[in-house]
Amino acid sequence: MPARILVVDDEADMVETVRFRLEQEGHEILTAADGLQALATARAAQPDLMILDVMMPGENGYRVAHLLREDEAAGRIQKRIRIILLTARDLRGDPEREQTFMEFSQADLMLYKPFDLEQLVARIQELLEQQ
């Protein structure tokens, strides 16, 4: 099922690679290069899903996700945006810290860079089916 997906990363090559692959799946892709642009785009376009880098200029991905969840709770965003956090900082060796970040951001999923593009596509499909 096609969805509107916002891809947010300050690395242009990464955005283009993900966008190209997801467009092949029939999704409508929006992009942003930093946290502030991501917030503005998400609030205006209200995508079904957001792929959100953690370390970015403006606002980091954890904070962007947290602010969007506040917007949802306050009714400023009319639907739940599924959020996948992408990070190069591997927290798998520190499960307590990983849990803290996930709880704060209220993201749906965290993937570590580098990631397998087909795994990302599969996880997106799983999250979209939950809506």
Describe the oligomeric state of these chains in a short phrase.
single chain
Named at the architecture level, the CATH assignment is 3-Layer(aba) Sandwich
Between the first and last Cα atoms, what is the distance in angstroms? 11 Å
Q: Please identify the structural class as seen in this structure.
A: alpha/beta
Spatial extent as radius of gyration: 14 Å
Total number of beta strands: 5
Summarize the helix and strand pattern as letters: EHEHEHEHEH
Q: Treating each run of at least 4 consecutive H or I residues as one helix, how many helices?
A: 5
Which word captures the global form? Answer: globular
Main β sheet profile? 5 strands, parallel
Count of separate structural domains: 1
- CATH superfamily, by name, is Response regulator
Percent helix:
40-55%
Task: Look at the structure and give the CATH class.
Answer: Alpha Beta
* Averaged pLDDT: 91
What is the name of the CATH topology? Rossmann fold
The fraction of residues assigned to DSSP E strands is: 15-25%
Low-confidence stretches: none
Strand order of the largest sheet: 2-1-3-4-5
